[in-house]
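wait is this the right file?? whatever heres the structure
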């Protein structure tokens, strides 16, 4: 995974968040060391603000090789209160102020900044093919992203069709990617080279890593590998393609093409998975699953989201506010976020009666394909929204202020956060890109 000839990207893992800069006067120094309360609530309107618009750096965790770890997952299955499937960590400092400053923190794409006119937010097709003759004078983007909060480190080439899953097993120095080209590729995180290709003989619908396990959703079964013990299992039962996988309460859940959610219980004594239940209720394929707050949330092609109890596996509620396929669901704090081909992201919160209700709707110009939540180097929660116009929109939460965009040749179906400010995207051409957050403070204008 060389950059500029000989730099290994996994050795270029950024340090912690930037510390506050000093200024003259003891009062100003004291103020600069405090985090703005209004910024945390997503509604600070002061510019310049005398307080910090970023979280103070938290102590980093070591992965044993100098790399700060962002995951607290143990080796094995996650606890009930952990948000599997890409959920975001709790942050009790942020209140329910969704979308309050959606346009006030824009970075001004298309405006004149420093005497330079920003380019039209569209990739130059000639640049993508490597033969644009306009150079810096081209009106279209010669970059895979806009905004200055992250940068692309390298591209992993090899898959021939859309990348449908990216997994980083705990305790492993390998990255796993799955594709509809019927292969799983294993990448060495030190060299960036492909360390192996596994041909599974069928399209891969999804992937999940949980502890040392890697799960692969295929047609009519789920493949399970333990990267530490080399255990290789095939879990039978699904009818049709497996589109979604998640773990919760020592159970593995699989969303299947026929609308069912199959459940396996992990038996620690025999080190295998035993069939536990089949959850029925959706009329069409289940394409997304997430676990949070001792509940399972499932999104389907039937336009609905179902809420299931992890204790008795009963359906507690059916949400029908979306008008098209629910492509992705995500748990963050006490909220549930969902996106759909109906061009909306909906934020759900529990009412006094305990049922979920929409508290905010964010609209996009195009249908949405995937959500991923993570934190930047300052600890600020960020939402990635992949759209079917081949772009990813990156937003601060809860304000939905735009941080930047990521572009691809085709639609991005897979987004995965990694350690030490790294994250990964996989698109419809089969390309996997490695990205890194920068520690440059976000503009607050």
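ok assuming it is, sequence goes like this
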């Amino acid at each position: 995974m060389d950059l500029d000839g000989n730099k290994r990207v996994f050795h270029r893992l950024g340090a912690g968040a930037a510390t506050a800069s000093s200024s003259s006067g003891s009062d100003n120094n004291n103020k600069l060391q405090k985090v703005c309360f209004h910024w945390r609530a997503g509604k600070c309107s002061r510019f310049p603000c005398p307080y910090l618009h970023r979280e103070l750096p938290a102590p980093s965790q070591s992965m044993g090789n100098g790399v700060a770890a962002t995951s607290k997952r143990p080796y094995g299955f996650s606890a009930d209160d952990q948000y599997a499937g890409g959920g975001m960590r709790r942050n009790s400092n942020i209140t329910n102020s969704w979308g309050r400053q959606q346009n006030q923190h824009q970075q001004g794409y298309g405006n004149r900044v420093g005497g330079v006119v920003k380019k039209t937010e569209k990739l130059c097709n000639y640049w993508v093919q490597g033969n644009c003759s306009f150079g810096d004078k081209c009106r279209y983007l010669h970059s895979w992203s806009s905004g200055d909060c992250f940068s692309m480190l390298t591209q992993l080439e090899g898959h021939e069709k859309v990348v449908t899953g990216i997994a980083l097993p705990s305790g492993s120095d390998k990255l796993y990617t799955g594709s509809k080209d019927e292969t799983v590729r294993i990448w060495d995180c030190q060299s960036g080279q492909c360390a192996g290709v596994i041909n599974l003989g069928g399209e891969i619908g999804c992937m999940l890593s949980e502890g040392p396990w890697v799960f692969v959703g295929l047609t009519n079964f789920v493949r399970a590998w333990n990267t530490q013990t080399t255990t290789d299992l095939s879990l039978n039962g699904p009818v049709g393609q497996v589109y979604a996988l998640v773990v919760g309460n020592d159970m593995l859940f699989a969303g299947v093409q026929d609308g069912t959610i199959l459940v396996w219980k992990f038996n620690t004594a025999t080190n295998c998975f035993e069939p536990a239940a089949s959850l029925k209720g959706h009329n069409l394929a289940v394409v997304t699953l997430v676990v949070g707050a001792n509940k399972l949330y499932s999104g389907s092609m039937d336009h609905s989201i179902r809420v299931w109890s992890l204790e008795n596996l009963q359906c507690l509620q059916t949400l029908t506010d979306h008008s098209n396929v629910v492509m992705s669901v995500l748990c963050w704090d006490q909220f549930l976020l969902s996106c759909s081909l109906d061009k909306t992201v909906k934020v759900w919160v529990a009412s006094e009666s305990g049922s979920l209700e929409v508290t905010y709707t964010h609209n996009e110009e195009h249908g949405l394909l995937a959500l991923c939540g993570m934190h930047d180097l300052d600890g600020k929660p960020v939402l990635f929204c992949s759209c079917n116009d081949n772009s990813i929109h990156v937003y601060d939460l809860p304000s939905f202020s735009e941080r930047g965009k990521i572009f691809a040749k085709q639609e991005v179906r897979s987004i995965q956060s990694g350690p030490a400010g790294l994250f990964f995207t996989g698109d419809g051409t089969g390309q996997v890109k490695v990205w890194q957050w920068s520690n440059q403070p976000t503009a607050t204008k």
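The two ends are 36 Å apart (CA to CA). so i think its the right one actually
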